[in-house]
Structure formats: structure tokens, C-alpha cells
Amino acid sequence: MRHTDPAGRPRTTPPVRGRPTILSGPRAALVLLLGLPALLFALITWQVVAHGPLARADEHLSDSLVHRGAPTQFLADLGGVMVAVPVLALVLLYAARRTRATGRDHWWRPAATAVLLLAAVPLWVVPLKELIARSGPPVMGPGTGFYPSGHTATASIAYGGAVLLLLPWLRGALARRTVVVLAVVVNIGVGFGLVRQGYHWPLDVVASWCVCAIPLSLWWFLARRRSG
Q: How many domains does the chain have?
């Protein structure tokens, strides 16, 4: 139906603006990157504590996956402090030097963020291990404290943090994608090695990925906002 002016002549209907979208673009991506891992971690933790069907399926799957050998031991070792921390330290020194050379204020913030995230790993992993007290795969013998995986968390924060430190200094989309894919592949390799060697159940690994995805996603989002 057309509107008319006071004289009765037809006039154009004013455009109707769409409803403002609260979550769109990067904000929507951030909500997904934070919310989905948190929900998945809560689900996995509930199933592990209650020894629900997901946890039982996890244990059956692990039985068929465990097969110890040197190649997968190497992959598992990539999540150790002796490997992951030096890699992050080298990247951290490189990125800090490059950032300081630009003369920017607070040039130390990215490096400090990486250090704090890595230092925080035992602060949440150890209490969860003690609280949940999940038994390990049979090859690990008696004992508890396998959930979540500390090696997986160390690798995720160390290699993920290294990528976020490097991204601002890489030229071209191909180089940035290559570094991101390499970090993902390494972390998948660490998780596979831990499960294959029987050090952890698969859900121990997935749970650590979920937790680590939250601070890394938040770091990525804030870095994009500052650079934009």
C-alpha cells in the first residue's frame, strides 16, 4: 500500500532498514570460536565424570588404536616441554625483536601473552586432573590423573602461540596459511601420538584442544582488532 502526502498525492515509501545485527562478522566468529569449544568441553567432562556412553566409546576406540612404536613416540614427544617450549621461545624472541624495532608502544604485549598462556597450562590442567581423577589406558597401569592431557595443552598453546606471534610478520596469504596448517598438523600429530602410544584416551586430547582453543581464539580476535 502506497502512502500519500497531505494533498493526496502518492509518495514513495521510505526505505525500511533491517534490524541491527548484534553478532555479525568477526564477533559472530568469536562467539563460535569461544562457545563451541566450551560446550564441547563441558559435554566431554560430564561424560568422563559420569562414565557415560561417550566415555565408554572412547575407551573402546582407544583399545583398537594403541600400538606403540618409535614414529608415534616422536609425535608424542613434540608435545613435551623439552620440545614445545624452546620452539615457542625462539619464535617469541624473533617476534619481540621485530616488534620492538618498529618503535610501537607496548611492543612486549604479544610476547607476554604467549608466556602467560603457557605458564597458565599447569594451573588449570593439574587441578582438573586431580578433581576428575580419570584412570588411564591399560598400558599405563594403575593410577589416575589422565584427563585432560597436559602434553596436548602444552603443544596447543606453544605452537598456536608461535603462529599468532609470527602471523603479523609473514608476507602473503600463502605463507600465513602454510604456518597455520603446519601448526594444526603438528598438534594433530601430537594427539595421535599420545593416543597411539597409550598415554591418553582420545577424549583426554580433545578436551585439551577445546580448552586451549578459547584463549588462542580470544588472542587472535584482539590482535585483529588492534591491527584493523
A: 1
Tell whether 6 is covered by a domain. Answer: no
The mean pLDDT of 2-20, rounded to a whole number, is 53
How many angstroms separate the most distant Cα atoms in the chain?
91
Q: What is the DSSP string of 124-182?
A: HHHHHHHHH--B--GGG-S-B--SS-HHHHHHHHHHHHHHHHHGGG--SHHHHHHHHHH
The answer to whether the CB of 46 falls within 8 A of the CB of 52 is yes
Q: Is residue 29 in a domain?
A: no
Range(s) of the domain holding residue 92: 35-227
Query: How does pLDDT run across 171-183, given as a tens digit for each residue?
Result: 999 999 999 999 9
pLDDT value at residue 154: 98
Distance CA 198, CA 137 (A): 6
